[in-house]
């Protein structure tokens, strides 16, 4: 099971360690540092590193490496999933998951880690339960605690932990009962030089914010459930019912949670909402290169494409770029060779473009590599897969809740090759 | 309003000061002293703050163990947070202060009785974390109570505590009977308790590979499956991993478990998904393939695996390593999902490389165009490692999908045109492989390759290029110049290049001997005289000998047709793959090594196997016997190892003439070595080699051995005998060699014995001619055999009824059986015989053709043959050449059948007839053979496979003997 945890910051300092079994010397991290040094980029550190007596399994989140030490055969995914849960919990408790935030709340961090794992076995990882055990620090509570001497630690046995619905605490009360659902889809795509789609897929999630009194039992149905053939559910969803009727039936956790995530694979036809016309060329023997980029909307169902951000790693030989954007602003970092262009909203009448020249080192040969263009965007009020919620019903409680559903499409890893 | 806002602002500042970072700021000296004072303060609040400071220091690795007594004093409190903090401290430092830690015991015992289950659980949890031997004994009673606590929260915590205690003191846990209690908890009513009990037992079982802790039977399985639906995600992982160890009784049970596990594939936790995949992959083995459900299950496995790839890169990596295994075992699952493995430019390098690997595994004729387009794209990326692997991947595609080879080659040529140095080098390395796979097909590109000769600076690329030049020397006009250019810096090259250069130049010489004599002499002398590398020197000498003695043989050896390279070079060996499939999701699956290979102190050598497939009809009891059952029983007892060779032949002390010495030579190689001493080399070199001590040493060994085997009375190789003409009539049936003199009259006071062996209607006969060359009459003949390899013994007395007068001969036929005492002889078919007459006892030894021992019922069933052939490890295969045999395959087959070598199947591939034959020896050993006959080629190749590879040599001799007569 998980033996120890080390938190390592970007500069390679261990700033927190926690041991659930016997103490493992922090020198074990030397193997990690070695791998870190070898990696060209911070994210290239291999997630599983063997050492003579231990295995180090790490994730990189918010520029912090969470390095778990294990000694016996443990499923690595189990460890990685747990580390994710630690990150999520920190974020949940402190708003951000940064070195500063962790140091500021080190006692809570320690208490949390102690609650989350017992002898390496996960104990309480549900945010609802943890919050009952250890109250998240708030400015007000910290003050009150300081004055009255009361503590962050709950006095009660976390009720949910033993009930049939361990994800929901009992005795929830709200004056305003509301249930909001966000359907968020990210589109991952690779577009080739000529503009045709090599692969495109959609990662979708339905995040919920449910604040309902008592023990509500909800059902959510879709107009086109057939889209959802590859889904992962929150444990609250009744799987049998979904299998039989394609209806989501569940007793929701209290507060924010991810109801389901789904995947629309590249085998389905995925609509591509933007297109790029590009012309990035270098001529042999010339120290100048041409750069010409135009963006336009494609299958957007009439919705506006917003928050567009284009970035591209230009070839190493490029010294500088002298470009002229028709809208928005661009920056070029001559050290990392990263070009980024903050476009904003795409106006279909006047397509945004970025044109100009790149200067190369004099006398250098033409760069070998073709830069890839990375695009980020957002489209409100639309799920690109076409998924639509039909209705939401509540059983088990008498009041009428407020209900709401929002759709959004974002670019995930949306790449255009040149 | 403004004022209120100001106040809020102030509060904020106040609040920020309130954060825990302040605990980190006290680094002044005397800090410990200050803390001590605060810990002993009367004010509760101050105490708590002090404990917090202590914990903070501890977290960043400062040593605050000196405060142990003071902190422990704070333990007896009603404040839950303070209690927890003190517990935290205790867990960290109890080990360094064992005596002090005992002070805490009472509080634990008291807390275990607390009415609040949270406190009870907390106490039992903390207790287990105090890793001090002295304390553990005190903890047994409270733990026992907690294991039976009414509150499941306490029970589940106690279950984990057993595992902790076991880690500290395994014996204590066993003595106290905690393991049984833990086993009972598997049937607990609360799913969380079940999950934790399973987790604890699994962990304990890891350190006890042979204990039967997790005794799985249908009832417990049912319990686990029920708990699976209701416990937390982590519990589900433990339960699924535990289920994977179970072997269902039949396919029905297997299917029902699969049905109940499938919903887990839709779980949000990827570890649950992968553990479920493991269970399904394993149990699927038992389902009949024609079952509808089998197909459904295959379809259900693809989406969750694809989904894993949209997760964070670390998860992707682990998933990809496992998918790599799954794709090798069941390619059909993901065959349509090629696109999800396409590489995004900002994937971490470790993800990119894994994706590439899987792309090649999934490449097929259907998707090769897409794959190639992608690979070509990758070859222009920035990351050098990745680019190299992509270029290599193109080569692997060419080798895997024959239809694409042409396109791959042209893609590689395009890449070579880019002139990017490392791309060119990789491309040349893979083109070499393509040449080996498809000889004489793409040589048109050689010219392009040669243009890039100068840019190659990596050994592998240089070696590949040299190989190509050497292999196709006849088509490259300036091959000698090209190779010569490498020769200049011979000693600076890496071994790989040197070896390749040596071979390349020898090839060139054999192809164009006239112009390259100087070159070959140069390289041979560089390799043999100026090199310190033994491999290089040896290879150099071998070529030297070959060239000098028998250029024709040299041609045959050096320019021999190479075996085609296999399609996929890095497939995991099937048994390992099976084991790894049973370990999907574990570290083993990430490293593609069996778990016994690397995880410290775990599981011992408990190998897991996939259960046998349905329809085999066997019920498989345990995973271990599962695979063994399908295979035939252990090979029949082979000849006992060579014991006292001087044996107890007639209880007399004698030295048999041929007891040791290597088997007779079979190829020209050794012969060549012999001749070499005679100065054969000189013809090439113009003499004066004798002065080279290395040379002398190198050649010293073989001749020292050779004479012994040549001087042996029954000299090596039966083929020698056949030169005599073979005039003796051969009866129908088994082949029998002509008679030879076994015992010359000189040695036996006038008695000369010549003889042979024959097999007639299932009986082995020893046929002898006894000739009296002495002056007196001989009577009272008797015969006896020493123990021998196959237990040959006279079936009756030697029938020489009349006395043998001088100059008289008599023909005797002695029937033999094979029930005599057995001892391994060298050579195997050696037989030591004693013959007695009225004058004296005489000893001789002779060799019988092993074909005498081929029994009539040696025809194997085709199926059995196939299975056996596969089953015998390749190490046991030996290959021999039979030269100058002019029989057609059918004639050969008939001829061999006469000697009980049975042809089971015949296959014709590219003008080559392959005969598959089986032989059974009298002692039950089976020999399987593959005889390759090519029309027009007098040289046959015979491959022999046998569980007792020792017999192969003798069997081959029989083949040769039978075929040539």
From TrEMBL, chain A:
PROSITE patterns: CLAT_ADAPTOR_M_1, CLAT_ADAPTOR_M_2, MHD
UniProt cross-references to InterPro entries, sorted A to Z: Adaptor_comp_med_subunit, AP2_Mu_C_sf, AP_mu_sigma_su, Clathrin_mu, Clathrin_mu_CS, Longin-like_dom_sf, MHD
Membrane topology: Peripheral membrane protein
Presence of keyword Calcium: no
Cellular component annotations (GO), alphabetically ordered: clathrin adaptor complex; cytoplasmic vesicle membrane; Golgi apparatus
This protein's record includes keyword Cell inner membrane: no
Subcellular location: Cytoplasmic vesicle membrane; Golgi apparatus
Coiled coil: none
Domain of life (superkingdom): Eukaryota
GO biological process, one term: vesicle-mediated transport
SUPFAM superfamilies on file: Second domain of Mu2 adaptin subunit (ap50) of ap2 adaptor, SNARE-like
Domain MHD: from-to ranges: 176-417
Matching PANTHER family: AP COMPLEX SUBUNIT MU (PTHR10529)
Family named by the database record: Belongs to the adaptor complexes medium subunit family.
Protein name as it appears in the record: AP-3 complex subunit mu-2
Organism: Larimichthys crocea
């Amino acid at each position: 099971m998980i033996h120890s945890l080390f938190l390592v910051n970007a500069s390679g300092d261990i700033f927190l360690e926690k041991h659930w079994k016997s103490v493992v010397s922090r020198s074990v991290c030397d193997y990690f540092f070695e791998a870190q040094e070898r990696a060209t980029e911070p994210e290239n550190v291999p997630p599983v590193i063997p050492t003579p007596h231990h295995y180090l399994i790490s994730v990189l989140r918010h520029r912090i490496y969470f390095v778990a030490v294990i000694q016996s055969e443990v499923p690595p995914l189990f460890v990685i999933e747990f580390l994710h849960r630690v990150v999520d919990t920190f974020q949940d408790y402190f708003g951000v998951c940064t070195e500063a935030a962790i140091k500021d709340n080190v006692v809570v961090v320690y208490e949390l880690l102690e609650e989350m794992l017992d002898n390496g076995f996960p104990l309480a990882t549900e945010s609802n339960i943890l919050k009952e055990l250890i109250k998240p620090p708030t400015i007000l509570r910290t003050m009150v605690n300081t004055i009255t001497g009361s503590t962050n630690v709950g006095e009660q046995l976390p009720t949910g932990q033993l009930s049939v619905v361990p994800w929901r605490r009992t005795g929830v009360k709200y004056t305003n009962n509301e249930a909001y659902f966000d359907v968020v889809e990210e589109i991952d795509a690779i577009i080739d030089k000529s503009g045709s789609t090599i692969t495109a897929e959609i990662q979708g999630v339905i995040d919920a914010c449910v604040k309902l009194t008592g023990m509500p039992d909800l059902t959510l149905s879709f107009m086109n459930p057939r889209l959802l053939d590859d889904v992962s559910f929150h444990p609250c969803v009744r799987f049998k019912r979904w299998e039989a009727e394609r209806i989501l039936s569940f007793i929701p956790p209290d507060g924010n949670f991810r109801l389901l995530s789904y995947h629309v694979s590249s085998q389905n036809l995925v609509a591509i909402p933007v297109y790029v016309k590009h012309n990035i060329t270098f001529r042999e023997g010339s120290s100048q290169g041409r750069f010409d980029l135009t963006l336009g909307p494609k299958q957007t169902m009439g919705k506006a494409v917003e928050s567009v951000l284009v970035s591209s790693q230009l070839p190493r030989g490029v010294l500088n770029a002298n470009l002229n954007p028709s809208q928005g602003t661009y920056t070029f970092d001559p050290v990392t060779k990263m070009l980024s262009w903050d476009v904003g909203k795409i106006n279909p009448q006047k397509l945004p473009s970025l044109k100009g020249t790149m200067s190369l080192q004099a006398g250098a040969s033409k760069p070998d590599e073709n830069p890839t263009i990375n695009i980020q965007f957002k489209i409100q009020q639309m799920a690109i897969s076409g998924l639509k919620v039909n209705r939401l019903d509540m059983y088990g409680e008498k009041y009428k809740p407020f209900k709401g559903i929002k759709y959004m499409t974002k670019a995930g890893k949306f790449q255009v090759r040149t | 309003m403004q004022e209120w806002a100001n106040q809020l602002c102030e509060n904020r500042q106040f609040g920020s000061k309130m954060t825990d970072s302040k605990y980190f700021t006290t680094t002044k000296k005397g800090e410990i002293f200050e803390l001590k004072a605060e810990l002993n303060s009367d004010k509760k609040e101050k105490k708590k703050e002090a404990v917090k400071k202590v914990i903070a220091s501890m977290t960043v690795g400062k040593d605050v163990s000196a405060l142990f007594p003071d902190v422990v004093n704070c333990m007896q409190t009603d404040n839950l947070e303070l209690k927890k903090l003190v517990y935290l401290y205790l867990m960290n430092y109890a080990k360094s202060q064992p005596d002090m830690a005992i002070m805490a015991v009472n509080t634990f015992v008291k807390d275990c009785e607390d009415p609040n289950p949270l406190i009870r659980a907390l106490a039992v949890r903390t207790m287990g974390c105090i890793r001090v031997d002295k304390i553990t004994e005190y903890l047994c009673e409270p733990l026992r109570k907690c294991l039976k606590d009414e509150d499941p929260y306490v029970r589940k915590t106690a279950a984990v505590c057993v595992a902790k205690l076991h880690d500290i003191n395994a014996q204590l846990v066993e003595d106290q009977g905690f393991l049984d209690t833990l086993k009972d908890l598997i049937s607990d009513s609360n799913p969380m308790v079940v999950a934790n009990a399973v987790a604890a037992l699994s962990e304990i079982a890891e350190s006890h590979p042979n204990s039967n802790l997790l005794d799985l039977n249908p009832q417990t399985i049912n319990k686990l499956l029920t708990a699976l639906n209701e416990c937390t995600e982590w519990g589900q992982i433990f339960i699924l991993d535990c289920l994977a160890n179970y072997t269902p009784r039949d396919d029905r049970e297997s299917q029902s478990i699969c049905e109940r596990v499938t919903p887990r594939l839709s779980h949000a936790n990827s570890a649950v998904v992968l553990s479920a995949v493991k269970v399904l992959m394993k149990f699927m083995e038992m389902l009949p393939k024609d079952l509808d459900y089998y197909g459904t299950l295959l379809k259900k496995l693809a989406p969750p695996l694809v989904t894993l790839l949209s997760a964070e890169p670390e998860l992707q990596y682990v998933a990809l390593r496992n998918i790599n295994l799954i794709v090798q075992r069941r390619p059909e699952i993901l065959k349509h999902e090629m696109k999800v493995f396409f590489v995004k430019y900002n994937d971490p390098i470790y993800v990119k490389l894994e994706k590439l690997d899987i792309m090649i595994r999934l490449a097929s004729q259907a998707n090769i165009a897409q794959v190639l387009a992608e690979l070509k794209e990758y070859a222009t990326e920035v990351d050098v490692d990745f680019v190299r692997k992509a270029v290599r991947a193109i080569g692997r595609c060419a080798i895997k999908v024959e239809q694409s080879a042409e396109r791959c080659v042209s893609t590689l040529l395009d890449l070579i045109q880019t002139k990017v140095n490392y791309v060119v080098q990789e491309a040349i390395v893979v083109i070499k492989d393509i040449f080996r796979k498809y000889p004489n097909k793409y040589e048109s590109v050689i010219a392009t390759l040669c243009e890039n000769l100068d840019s190659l600076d990596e050994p592998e690329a240089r070696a590949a290029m040299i190989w190509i030049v050497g292999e196709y020397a006849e088509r490259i006009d300036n091959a000698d110049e090209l190779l010569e250019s490498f020769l200049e810096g011979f000693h600076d090259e890496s071994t790989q290049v040197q070896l390749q250069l040596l071979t390349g130049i020898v090839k060139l010489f054999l192809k164009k001997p006239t112009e390259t004599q100087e070159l070959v002499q140069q390289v041979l002398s560089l390799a043999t005289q100026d090199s310190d590398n033994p491999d290089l020197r040896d290879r150099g000498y071998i070529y030297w000998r070959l060239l000098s003695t028998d250029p024709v043989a040299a041609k045959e050896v050096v320019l021999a047709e190479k075996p085609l390279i296999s399609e996929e070079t890095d497939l995991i060996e099937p048994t390992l793959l099976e084991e790894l499939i049973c370990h999907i999701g574990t570290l083993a699956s990430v490293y593609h090594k069996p778990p016994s290979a690397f995880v410290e102190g775990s599981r011992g050598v408990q190998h897991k196997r996939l259960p046998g497939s349905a329809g085999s009809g066997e019920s498989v009891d345990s995973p271990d016997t599962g695979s063994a059952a399908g295979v035939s029983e252990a090979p029949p007892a082979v000849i006992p190892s060579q014991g006292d060779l001087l044996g107890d032949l007639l209880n007399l002390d004698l030295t048999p003439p041929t007891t040791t010495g290597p088997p007779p030579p079979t190829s020209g190689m050794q012969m060549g070595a012999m001749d070499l001493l005679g100065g054969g080399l000189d013809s090439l070199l113009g003499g004066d080699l004798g002065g080279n001590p290395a040379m002398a040493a190198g050649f010293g060994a073989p001749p020292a051995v050779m004479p012994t085997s040549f001087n042996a009375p029954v000299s090596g190789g039966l083929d020698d005998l056949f030169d005599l003409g073979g005039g003796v009539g051969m009866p129908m049936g088994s082949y029998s060699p002509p008679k030879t003199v076994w015992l010359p009259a000189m040695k036996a006071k006038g008695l000369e014995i010549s003889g042979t062996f024959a097999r007639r209607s299932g009986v082995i006969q020893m046929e002898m001619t006894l000739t009296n060359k002495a002056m007196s009459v001989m009577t009272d003949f008797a015969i006896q055999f020493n123990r021998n390899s196959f237990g040959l013994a006279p079936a009756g007395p030697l029938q020489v009824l009349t006395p043998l007068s001088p100059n008289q001969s008599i023909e005797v036929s002695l029937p033999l059986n094979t029930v005599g005492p057995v001892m391994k002889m060298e050579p195997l078919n050696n037989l030591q015989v004693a013959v007695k007459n009225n004058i004296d006892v005489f000893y001789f030894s002779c060799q019988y053709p092993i074909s005498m021992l081929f029994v009539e019922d040696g025809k194997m069933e085709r199926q059995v043959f196939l299975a056996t052939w596969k089953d015998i490890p390749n190490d046991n295969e030996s290959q021999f050449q039979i030269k100058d045999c002019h029989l057609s395959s059918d004639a050969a087959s008939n001829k061999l059948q006469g000697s009980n070598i049975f042809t089971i199947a015949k296959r014709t591939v590219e003008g080559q007839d392959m005969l598959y034959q089986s032989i059974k020896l009298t002692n039950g050993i089976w020999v399987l053979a593959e005889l390759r006959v090519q029309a027009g080629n007098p040289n046959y190749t015979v491959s022999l496979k046998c569980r007792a590879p020792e017999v192969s040599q003798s069997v081959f001799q029989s083949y040769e003997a039978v075929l040539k007569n």
